[in-house]
Design brief:
Layout (H helix, E strand, L loop, with lengths): L12 E3 L5 E3 L2 E5 L4 H6 L11 E4 L4 E2 L3 E2 L8 E3 L1 E7 L15 E8 L2 E2 H10 L4 H4 L5 E2 L4 E2 H4 L6 E6 L2 E7 L7 H11 L6 E4 L7 E2 L5 E6 L3 E7 L1
Parallel strand pairs: 3-15, 5-11, 6-18
Antiparallel strand pairs: 1-2, 3-4, 7-10, 7-16, 8-9, 8-15, 9-12, 13-14, 13-17, 17-18
């Protein structure tokens, strides 16, 4: 037994539909993975090599509340499919990539867009805009054994009942197996790793009191209040 010099922090987890919890090791997020969202962010939607950034494992939050963060006046919603891995490795072949998936969940990649924009202009990392406390609201994980693999299906987000984002998972530029295989060329993926797979067009700002409802076909809905 390790003799820690301070109390060990709790293991970040995602609740599992039907009971239990999934321990989170790392969170990888792909950028601009829906063509229409790439366009709205001012980029060419052509299939260029994918790029990833990271959130912290304890940024994921299943409380149903999103505290509006400090030092920002432009916080955006981004509805995303979460892919949770039960195993990993390096240089995973494309045709074996889905063998490593444990399950899927609905999530939000909340973004301090103004701080992210400043970082982009200065050529700096995005963490200040992406990896802040409780910036990853997440619903329960659903095991592949019950959902099957999700290659298509509607993904949408409503704010106060008004539709803001909509798309289909088949519109992803880089599909789930491709993301897993590509990441494994640069990182050693392991059980507990999570991939947030990008957002469709329609991202926009929220304010305190707003209620966001994120829905992915086959996974149900995630309701989150901005507080």
């Amino acid at each position: 037994m390790t003799d820690f010099v301070i109390p060990a922090p709790p293991v970040p987890t995602i609740p599992v539909s039907g009971g239990g919890a999934f321990p989170v090791r790392r969170v990888y997020c792909i950028g601009r993975n829906y063509a229409a969202h790439a366009v709205e962010m001012g980029h060419d939607p052509d299939r260029e090599p994918p790029f990833f950034f990271q959130k912290n494992p304890n940024n994921l939050d299943a409380s149903g509340e999103f505290p509006y963060p400090p030092h920002s006046n432009d916080v955006h919603h981004e509805v995303e499919l979460v892919v949770a891995l039960k195993s990993g490795g390096t240089n995973i072949p494309l045709d074996k990539a889905l063998d490593h998936v444990w399950g899927y969940a609905v999530s939000l990649d909340m973004t301090r867009r103004d701080l992210q924009g400043e970082a982009k202009k200065l050529g700096r990392p995005w963490e200040i805009g992406k990896a802040f406390e409780r910036s990853g609201p997440v619903g329960p994980l659903h095991p592949v054994a019950k959902t099957g693999h999700l290659a298509q299906g509607r993904i949408e987000l409503k704010v106060n009942g008004a539709l803001k984002q909509e798309g289909d998972m088949n519109q992803m530029i880089w599909k789930v197996p491709e993301m897993i295989s590509y990441l494994s060329e640069y990182f050693e993926l392991q059980a507990g790793d999570v991939i947030m797979s990008g957002t469709p067009a329609g991202v926009g700002a929220v304010v305190r009191g707003d209620v966001m409802e994120a829905t992915i076909e086959g996974l149900g809905s995630l309701t989150v209040k901005v507080v």
